């Protein structure tokens, strides 16, 4: 009769082992998904920051172009006035064409705005990466727990299997031959 108890326990342990193995397979798939999400989040953050940097570069280029054009126009007017023998106020003409440090101020403002936007993307990205890393850690902990349970159940399964075999030998009828 104890042979049947060992057989039932062996089946129960085998089912638990299969359940834990299946759960580990699911967790492994979830872990792969989280790893892809982490990689995608990092790519998105970098893409957004690159776009901001690109826009800042364009803004700086436009500012430099405008400053150069204004400088050229102011210089042409000053030279024309000198050629005509007119008395001129070079500072007033430069101011008229906007040849001041204003363009560098615009460039600096664009850089500050770009830095602020990059900081915002970094912060938002860190929140998302922290959430995904926490999820990955949780999956790892559950997998480790399942592995330790699986090891213990497997050891018990082997002992029950051995005991079942011994009990089967002991329970076999001897028909008076022993």
Folded structure, characterized:
The chain has a single domain, classed as Helix Hairpins (Orthogonal Bundle). It has three helices and no strands. With 178 residues, the protein is an all-alpha fold. It is rod-shaped. The mean pLDDT is 82. It is 89% helix and 0% strand.
SSE layout and pairing:
Layout: H1 2-83, H2 90-96, H3 102-171
Helix pairs in contact: 1-2, 1-3
The share of residues in helices is: over 70%
* Known CATH architecture: Orthogonal Bundle
**How many domains in all?**
1
Q: What is the chains' assembly state?
A: single chain
CATH topology: Helix Hairpins
Rg over alpha carbons: 39 Å
| Strand-pairing-aware structural class | mainly alpha
Portion in beta strands: under 5%
What spatial form do the alpha-carbon principal axes imply? rod-shaped
Q: Please identify the top-level CATH class.
A: Mainly Alpha
Q: Main β-sheet, in a few words?
A: none
Count up the helices.
Answer: 3
Count of strand segments: 0
- Give the N-terminus to C-terminus distance in angstroms: 20 Å
Low-confidence parts: none
**Mean pLDDT value:** 82
Order of helices and strands: HHH
């Amino acid at each position: 009769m104890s042979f049947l108890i060992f057989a039932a326990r062996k089946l129960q342990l085998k089912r638990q082992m299969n359940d834990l193995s299946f759960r580990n397979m699911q967790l492994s798939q979830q872990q792969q998904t989280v790893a892809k999400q982490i990689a995608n989040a990092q790519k998105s953050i970098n893409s957004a920051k690159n776009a901001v940097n690109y826009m800042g570069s364009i803004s700086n280029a436009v500012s430099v172009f405008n400053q150069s054009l204004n400088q050229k126009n102011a210089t042409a007017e000053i030279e024309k006035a000198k050629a005509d023998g007119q008395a001129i106020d070079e500072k007033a003409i430069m101011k008229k064409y906007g040849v001041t440090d204003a363009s560098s101020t615009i460039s600096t403002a664009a850089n500050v705005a770009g830095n602020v936007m990059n900081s915002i993307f970094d912060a938002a990205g860190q929140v998302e990466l922290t959430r995904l890393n926490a999820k990955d850690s949780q999956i790892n902990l559950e997998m480790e727990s399942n592995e330790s349970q699986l090891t213990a159940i497997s050891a018990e399964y082997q002992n029950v299997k051995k005991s079942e075999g011994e009990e089967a030998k002991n329970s076999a009828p001897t028909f008076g031959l022993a």
